[in-house]
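Comment on the following before class.
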Amino acid sequence: MTTRAPRILALAVGVFFGAGANAQTAPPAAGAPPSPPPPPGPAAGSEAAPPPNVQKFEGTDVSISPPAPAPVAAPAGTTAPAGEPSKGDHVAVPLTMDEIPVSTANNRVTWNLFGDPMFVAQSTDWKRPAFVLNPLDFLVTGRAGEFMALAEFAVELQEGAVNIDLERMFVGWHTERYQIDAGRTHAELGYWNNAFHHGRWLQMTVERPRAVRFEDEGGILPIHWVGVTGHWHPLLGAQSVEVIGAVGNGRGNIVDDIHTNDDTNSFKALLGKVEFKGFGARDLRMGVSGSFDRIAPLPAMDAAGGPTRPALPDVTINELITNAYVAYRGSELTIISEAFDILHHASGTNWNTFDIFALLAYRFDLLTPYVLLETRTGDVATDPFFFPDPTLAVGPEGILRKFFEVTTGLRVDISTWSALKFEYRATAPSGADTIHRALVDWSFGF
């Protein structure tokens, strides 16, 4: 005990001063602004850094990579390669937990912050325009070599109360050829859902297209995924291919019922995706994706006598979602188009919902005008999963039935990490009056 104490004390002092030396001798590049990191993807074949003020962050691109570890010379009298401990050097081999060396050379934790106060006026009540404080989004990413962990949470104000909503939290192992993530992620359905996350500054428009809105904001897709997702890159380079497979908890009893601790049945939801990048143009992406799930049955009434799924009681619903997309994001021109088909089958009956949107934007220095078109058709109004109780009214901001929507706007990048968005949207739900909405949004990301 008396002989180990000086060794432990010396090691602690060395680690303390070693970490300080690393922090002092490895500062960030001068003048480099903090770049909000998207979820990491394959480093090989990633695009070159965009010009200043061109916001181009995608879930499969690596904006920030951990610094390369400093080269380490082999111990004197050994033949070990640089950076590897000598087998004959007993100091480099940890003998106990107290003697494990601590290194900060290739460990990195980054914090990012996103927000966007907004002013909005709507035709449902023109006389009461209002300022809106949208969620404040925090993104924490840690990397140590090929291991990484990510957590994203939003602070929201709802009826005067402050709520914290955990959006994503997962750990992953990422290499050049493959990566695997476990936890709560954004489902690999289509392009938009993993190219743009909760920070609204990242995307062109103020709000997501309705097809890919979050479950608690009127969306119809399983946007969040709780399970394991694997990525494989059989082809890397200017032209690349990515194959994705995932297994996770299935849908809950209603659309925004996301199960993070259990599942409603023994069947696990399955997801697959294939993306092609760089074929025909460097910034062009094309892909198909889909998922299959079995939604657990519900009785018509719960124990308290309230309605649960009176439209289709005590029946399992099979769900098949298919998707195809094309996305081009150059330094000036942006085109994103996606189509989703949702098929629900139960008791010999099919309910089919089809949603398609297209975004077109063109950048003129700091100004980017854009237009977004979206339409939804099919059996969404009678689908027993989307509308388990047909007698309940659905408001204009809830799950819309069939509709056609036009959004036009102008994005002004007033600084590298901040943008003003002036937007007008006209929504024509089937069988209802057109809803007009005008807003000014000031988004930022650090």
Remarks:
- Confidence is low (pLDDT under 50) at residues 1-100.
- The chain is about 5% helix and 45% strand.
- The first helix runs from residue 4 to 25.
- Residues 110 and 431 are 49 Å apart (CA to CA).
